[in-house]
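Thread: pyridoxal-5'-phosphate complex, take 2
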Amino acid sequence: MTKDNQSFETKLIHAGEPKPRIAGAINVPIFQSSTYEYAGEGSYHDVRYLRLSNTPNHLALHKKLAALEGAEAALVTSSGMSAITTALLTFLKAGDHLLAHNTLYGGTANFVNNELPRYGIERDLIDATNPSDWESKLKPNTKVIYVETITNPIMDVPELGKIVEFAKTHELISMIDNTFASPVLYCPVVQGFDLSLHSCTKYINGHSDIVAGAVIGSADYLGQVTKKLNHLGGSLDSNACFLLHRGVKTLALRMNKQCENAMLIAPFLENHPQLKKVNYPGLESNSSFERAKEHLCGFGAMLSFEIDGDVDQADQFINHLQYAIKAPSLGGVETLVTRPVTTSHALMDKAEREVAGISDTLIRYSVGIEAADDLIADLQQALEHIG
Ligand SMILES: *Cc1c(COP(=O)(O)O)cnc(C)c1O
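Output below.
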């Protein structure tokens, strides 16, 4: 059996593991050493040093993550934002133009809108579901197109195939934040994207106990991103590498269960008389349903919905949930709930939020691995409490 026909679940456990095993250990031990004896390395980037992301903990993770998305290479970083900012700064320079998704993760939006212009990099925001919008915004100096697989908190899915085609036609570097899908649902590089980016803080690690990121793509591009990270300094600490390595092994089990739970919870919410709107691409009524079915191997485990009521009632509902923990972030084994206006989208002004469909009463729900029946009963009892 060659490596290429290993199934995803087998790669999670076996891909990238050092052979022979280090001192026979089943797990890659934590290499708690910042520097290593000089062994004749020919260049700065080859010197063995923790910031240069080349300890055995890093190398094993790089091989595993690359294998999971069917790519040549990967690099772990100190956070999702570090992966995103380092990738953008590797391929954009003063005078370049970026086409960026108009519903980006808050930290990315802030970087694209407020930081990149300070370095002389222009950007236009695009509706990633509408090809004529990005065609009309293309410029001679456009260098990169950047989108997200599933958007936060409305869970729209872009015209992924058309974005890849457009990038190839116009020789743009295509980047996608694949955090919400994870490689269980989508492998961007196999589908033609140049770089796949992750906040591993979310599904890939899955246990809400570290912050980490990853960049995945060709060996050539990853070589360039790694050199940039070596200078910018956002490398992942060895202890966090160890936890990420442990966490990722159960990715398929967790993600499949979370998607299954979400597929049971979404129709319950959609049919509930106290809810106005449910955003989940697995519902046939959802505007992204056909695109999600075409491109993804599942519909994800993130939902959002609006209570038929005011902000106080939305907060009452959240406060009455027994299992869902009121907290930002997502993708862990535990169900988390938040009102995006108070957390992830607090920096956006109200007019912008309304255009993006983010009302004050919108509630975002990250489905965990608890029993679906318990989560549904919990939602039901919390709705009964709304006065
Ligand atoms: C959380 C998140 C990020 C940022 O990741 P950090 O690990 O918190 O730096 C980027 N993109 C998406 C889609 C996210 O959900």
